[in-house]
Amino acid sequence: MSGWTDERGGEGDGRIYVGNLPTDVREKDLEDLFYKYGRIREIELKNRHGLVPFAFVRFEDPRDAEDAIYGRNGYDYGQCRLRVEFPRTYGGRGGWPRGGRTGPPTRRSDFRVLVSGLPPSGSWQDLKDHMREAGDVCYADVQKDGMGMVEYLRKEDMEYALRKLDDTKFRSHEVGLLSFIELPRHSA
């Protein structure tokens, strides 16, 4: 848990982040996934065309949020493995921590996947968004030659990416530009 909170919420207000959702997800689907953990006060679904959808779910009782995280983080939902956690909020007024942010995230791991076949316009953010479908990405970077590298927090997420994301369509921030990514046939 990050421990960063602001006026939008965090660990004490019953709000959770739900990522790696299928593209056709609806608010009703989220309600069905989380109702058993407690009374839901609000569901805020973010489903922008071309990006992996995510949502914020707010429970009336913060303890229910903890139960939902425990019960649904890593849960296989259709073809997606859900990522459920307390939201990460930065600084006192939202936004990034002081000093801004200019490059890829700096947290690293040994659970890495090399990616080929990226379009020249693909950014590390695009790659991270695409590969997040398999789990918690802690680092992503791309090279001009169409190669990229993604690192996962957990070995299981890396292995899931190798199985499920090979030869998948990749969309960069340029609308309509698709490319197929290739992953190695063995785990590192």
Molecular structure report:
This protein has 188 residues and is α+β, with helices and mostly antiparallel strands. The chain folds into 2 domains: 15-85, 2-Layer Sandwich (Alpha-Beta Plaits), CATH 3.30.70.330; 112-181, Alpha-Beta Plaits (2-Layer Sandwich), CATH 3.30.70. The chain contains 4 helices and 11 strands. It has helices at residues 27-34, 62-72, 124-131, 155-164; strands spanning 15-19, 40-46, 54-59, 76-77, 80-81, 83-85, 111-115, 137-142, 148-152, 169-171, 178-180. A hairpin with a 7-residue loop joins strand 2 and strand 3 (54-59). It is elongated and about 50 Å long. The two termini are 27 Å apart. It comes from Octodon degus.
Under CATH, the homologous superfamily of the largest domain reads: RRM (RNA recognition motif) domain
Q: What is the strand tally? A: 11
What is the CATH architecture term of the largest domain? Answer: 2-Layer Sandwich
CATH level 3 topology of the largest domain: Alpha-Beta Plaits
Q: Strand-residue fraction?
A: 25-35%
Sheet of most strands? 4 strands, antiparallel
Indicate the multimeric state. single chain
Shape label: elongated
Structural class category: alpha+beta
Mean pLDDT: 75
Task: Give the tally of structural domains.
Answer: 2
- What is the CATH top level name of the largest domain? Alpha Beta
Number of helices in the DSSP assignment? 4
Please report the distance between the alpha carbons of the first and last residues: 27 Å
Order of strands across the biggest sheet?
A: 2-3-1-6
